[in-house]
Each structure stands twice: as structure tokens, then as C-alpha cells.
UniProtKB/TrEMBL annotation:
The UniProt record lists the keyword Transmembrane: yes
Species lineage: Eukaryota, Fungi, Fungi incertae sedis, Chytridiomycota, Chytridiomycota incertae sedis
Name of this protein: L domain-like protein
Organism: Rhizoclosmatium globosum
Protein topology in the membrane: Single-pass membrane protein
One Pfam entry name: LRR_14
Length: 410
């Protein structure tokens, strides 16, 4: 047991030194000073010893009790002094041996000391011993570690517009720390919108462990964050999402199948991401979609016919790479998207004819089919549309059986 002084100067008994979570992170010299303070407790122990000795002279009826207490205090004072001086010597010369021997202190004290170390660096000390591994991998330590770094969260603020320093620290930590961080910082949010064009970049993978506690989100925009690697499958658990934008990141791999379970999505933008693979038929499950943008990626055709199920779609903008195994054509099912106002399939390596079903798109105002390899006759039904912009240029095989309306680029 260590004796410390409280703010009034009176000694108070405690089993471990306490460092306030609101104090700035101490250096090893600060921990050294904390342990050095423990040496001052010898004065309190000496005072108590003197008091016990005096009691022995004045209260002989309880002599045996005080004698036992005296022996205990003398032994404790000796051990306390020896332990403190030993730890001080080690703190003056920080080595692996020093950290290993810190386990001679009570583990709750060790946990409090270690929780001041950077969350990424502290994980490395798991290799020192089983005791460190168990401590640093525990939920209790994760909670303490996060409490040191994250201020009290105002849960009435349900929107985050830019990443904080804590976000940048915990995004690279082990999953157990990420989970606790997201639980405390973000479980109450409904909107997480970071457009980090001018800010420092993450340069790491999307933290899948965070997503476990983001299930209240209706809007997730991570733009220009420089995320790398694949989209985590946990993204498919955010069933309340209405907007998902991951544009301008360095993602890889295919869109996980779990993403097509987000049936409440109204906006999906995956532009300039580096994603690969085909657009799957499961895209047709997202029947609430109003806006679908996937351009400047490595994704290939064909365009699945199930896209005709997205009958709430107002804007469709795709740029697809060439698929050497199968041709990419304009599916006639697009004619079912009667709410469509923007159709941009430029540079999609399209072949074949323009289907006359596009003439059914009465709401269409902007159509771009340029920079493809389309051929055959342009359907005369397109001339009846109230198009404000129409670009069919750079399709060498197209023929017109009618005079193209003024303003069309052919």
C-alpha cells in the first residue's frame, strides 16, 4: 500500500498512484517524478510508526495488537522503499528490462502507467511477457487508454465534418482499441462527412472495427481521405445508410457483396477509387437509389440488366473499363428508369446499337454516350426527348435517319 498526499496535504491511503485522465500525457521523467514521490511516503510511515510506539506505552491493554501492526508497518516501509528506489533506477535508464520489471508493481498501477504511452506504440509491449499481453489486450485497458485520449463527448452533436487528432491516432491501433474508440466517440452519430482534400491523409485501410459502432449512420462520406485497401465487409452492416460516398481514395479489390444489402441507400458514389471487378446483378437490389456514380475506377462492364430495377434513379454516371471476356452494351432495361434525368455512359467501351427503349425516358435532360464504339441507326425516338444536352460524338459507326436536333454533338 502506498501513501500519497491529497490536495489538502493530508496523507491518504491507496493501492495505486492515480493520474487524472485530464492531465497531459507525461513523459518517462513524469513517471519518474511520480514514483519519486512515493519515497516521500517514508516520512508518513515513520510518523505512523512513532504513533504506534507511543500507543504501546500508553495503552498496554492492546499491546499485542499494536506490536503486530508495528511489525507489519516496519516490513512494509522497508519493502516499499526498496521497490520504489529500484523502479526509479530503472526509469532513469529505460530498457526492455525496465518495462518487464514494471510488472513487479500491481497490474492496475502498470496499466495506468502504460495507458499514457502512444496507443500504437504501447501494443508492441505485448511481446515482453504474458502479463503485458493479457493487460494490453484487455477491454479494461482499452477503456482506460481511450479515456486518456478522448475528451468527454457531447452526444447532442450527431454530425462530424472533419477528422480529429484522435481519429488519426486510433485509426492505426489494434482492433480492440478501435472498437472502444468508435463506441465512445461515434456510436451516437447519424452523419460522418469528411472531405479531407486539403487536410493530412490517413494512408491506411478503412477501419472496419469502427463500423461496428456506426450503425446509426444515415450518411457516410469519406472523400479524399486516402484510404487504401478493400472496402470492409462490415460496411454492409450499416443498414440505415442513405448516402455512401468513398470517392477519391486508393481502394482496391471488388465491391464486397455485403454492400448490396444496403437497401436504404439513395446515393452511392465510388468515383476515382481504384476498385476492380464487374458491376454485379445484385446492384439491382438497391431499389431506393436516386443517384449512382461510379467513374474513373478499374471496374469493367458489362452493365447488368438488373439495373432496370432502380426505378427511383435520377442520375446514372458510369465509366467502365473494357472487359476482354464479354461485350459491354447498353441494356434496353434502362428504358424502365422513367425518373432518369442524367444518363452518362461516356467512355464505357460500349458496343452495339443504342436501344430504342431509351426513347421512353421522358424525364431525361442530359445524355452522354460519347467516346464509345456504338454503331447502327440512332433511334428516331430519341429526337422526341426534351434533351438539353446530348453527346453522341466519337462513335464512328452511328448513322442518322433523321436530322439531329440543334445542340446535339454528333
Amino acid at each position: 500500500m502506498f501513501l500519497l498526499r491529497n490536495q489538502t496535504g493530508r496523507p491518504t491511503s491507496t493501492s495505486s498512484p492515480t493520474i487524472s485522465a485530464n492531465d497531459p500525457s507525461p513523459s518517462l521523467s513524469d513517471i519518474y517524478n511520480l514514483l519519486l514521490q512515493l519515497t516521500h511516503t517514508q516520512a508518513q510511515l515513520a510518523s505512523e510508526l512513532a504513533s504506534v510506539k507511543q500507543s504501546l506505552h500508553t495503552q498496554s491493554s492492546i499491546q499485542d495488537i499494536h506490536s503486530t501492526r508495528l511489525s507489519f508497518l516496519e516490513t512494509q516501509a522497508t519493502n516499499n522503499h526498496r521497490q520504489v528506489m529500484h523502479e526509479i533506477e530503472k526509469l532513469q535508464n529505460s530498457t526492455k528490462k525496465h518495462y518487464t520489471r514494471l510488472t513487479s508493481l500491481p497490474m492496475d498501477v502498470v496499466g495506468r502507467i502504460m495507458s499514457w504511452i502512444d496507443p500504437v506504440e504501447v501494443w508492441q509491449f505485448r511481446a515482453l511477457s504474458k502479463g503485458f499481453r493479457d493487460l494490453l489486450s484487455s477491454n479494461g485497458f482499452a477503456t482506460l487508454l481511450v479515456s486518456r485520449r478522448v475528451p468527454t463527448v457531447d452526444r447532442s452533436i450527431t454530425r462530424s465534418k472533419k477528422p480529429t487528432l484522435s481519429d488519426r491516432i486510433f485509426v492505426d491501433t489494434p482492433a480492440i482499441y478501435q472498437v472502444e474508440y468508435a463506441r465512445k466517440a461515434y456510436s451516437h452519430l447519424i452523419s460522418l462527412c469528411w472531405n479531407d482534400y486539403d487536410g493530412p491523409k490517413f494512408n491506411t485501410s478503412i477501419p472496419g472495427a469502427w463500423l461496428r459502432h456506426l450503425k446509426n449512420l444515415t450518411e457516410l462520406k469519406w472523400i479524399y481521405c486516402n484510404w487504401t485497401g478493400p472496402i470492409p465487409r462490415e460496411m454492409g452492416d450499416l443498414i440505415n445508410l442513405k448516402t455512401l460516398e468513398l470517392s477519391h481514395n486508393h481502394l482496391s479489390g471488388e465491391i464486397p457483396s455485403e454492400l448490396w444489402n444496403l437497401v436504404n441507400l439513395e446515393v452511392l458514389e465510388l468515383n476515382n477509387t481504384g476498385l476492380t471487378g464487374r458491376l454485379p446483378p445484385d446492384l439491382g437490389k438497391l431499389t431506393s437509389l436516386v443517384k449512382l456514380y461510379i467513374w474513373d475506377s478499374e471496374m469493367t462492364g458489362p452493365i447488368p440488366s438488373e439495373i432496370g430495377n432502380l426505378q427511383n434513379l435520377n442520375e446514372l454516371f458510369l465509366v467502365l473499363q473494357e472487359n476482354s471476356e464479354v461485350r459491354t452494351v447498353i441494356p434496353p432495361e434502362l428504358g424502365r428508369l422513367t425518373k432518369l434525368m442524367l444518363l452518362n455512359l461516356a467512355s464505357c467501351h460500349l458496343v452495339g446499337c443504342i436501344p430504342r427503349e431509351l426513347g421512353q425516358l421522358a424525364s431525361l435532360r442530359h445524355m452522354y454516350l460519347d467516346e464509345n464504339r456504338l454503331g447502327g441507326n440512332v433511334p428516331i425516338e430519341l429526337a422526341a426527348l426534351e434533351l438539353e444536352e446530348c453527346d453522341l460524338s466519337n462513335n464512328a459507326g452511328l448513322n442518322f435517319s433523321f436530322d439531329a436536333p440543334a445542340g446535339w454533338r454528333i
